[in-house]
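During the reporting period the student researcher (J.K.) took over the structure-prediction task from the postdoctoral fellow and processed the backlog of single-chain submissions. One of the processed entries is reproduced below for the supervisory committee.
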Amino acid sequence: MLLIGLTGSIGMGKSTTARLFAEEGAAVHDSDAAVHALYAGAAVPLIEAAFPGTTREGAVDRKELGTRVLGDAKALEKLENIVHPLVRAAERAFLDEARASGATIAVADIPLLFETGRAKDFDRVVVVSAGADEQRRRVMERPGMTEEIFARILERQLPDAEKRARAGVVIDTSRGVEDARAQVRAALKDFGAA
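J.K. obtained the following structure tokens:
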């Protein structure tokens, strides 16, 4: 099974690109979706114990948790030490299931792939990019997003240029979905998977 690590900074089109890989027949694991599930399940008591008052009605209050950890490196590290192992376990279970089902391609959508030293875990690394202006436009359209939050998120991510330099393949999502679909198909062909 070919393992592809998919990454890119916030607002670059990772989720759309992951969907395009899925439409081409790849098994896709979405780390963001895994975190959402954990924030309504297994991570709730652990996060409440570490950050009292950040859960409500059996789920993590993402806004309250964000207020507590964004801009506080120690708090963020504490949160990551809780969440990352749970996400990795979900990813391993997903990949085991994909192998067992006979999947030939598996894509793991990992926002902080380079930042967490995960590139070595994959046969190929694909970086999704759209350029700084398009990224800013997309991110600032998100509900509740502010310049301050955006700046704090970018501080934690490797610069886009560095991600592109480390990539095996770059998918440019600035030209629309159909163009990105063509790039995904070309990448799979190049990988010998299409």
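The committee noted the following: The chain has nine helices and seven strands.
J.K. will present the remaining backlog at the next meeting.
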